[in-house]
Design goal:
This protein is mainly α and about 120 residues long. It is about 75% helix and about 0% strand.
Length: about 120
Amino acid sequence: MDAVAPIYQKQIDRQCKIDMTEAKSAWNVSQDANAANQAANYLGRIDPNSICYDEAQTLSNQISKRIKELDQREWDFKLKKQQDEVDLEKATVKAARDIGVAYGENQKAAVYNVSGWYY
C-alpha cells in the first residue's frame, strides 16, 4: 500500500497536465462562453491533490473574469440600444410638436362675417 500512494500521485499529476493542456487549448480558441464551458469541463476533472491544481484555479479565475467582462459588454450594448430608441422616439415627438407649432403660428386670422347671417 505504501507503493500505491506515489504511483497514484504521479497518475493524477499526469492527468492534471493533460486536462490543463486541453482546457487552455479550448479557452484559447475563442475566449467566449462556449470555450469557457469546454474549458470548465476539463478543469472540473482536475484532482485537488494534483500538482497543477493552483494553475487550474488561476485559469478558472481568468475565464470567470473574461466572461463577466463579456456579459457586461453585452449588457452595456443592450442599454445603449434601448437608450438610442428612446432618444429617437423623443426626437420624433419633438419634431411633430415643432411642425404643429409652426403650422399654428403661420395661420391667417379667421374673419367671420356675421352680418346678415340670421335673416
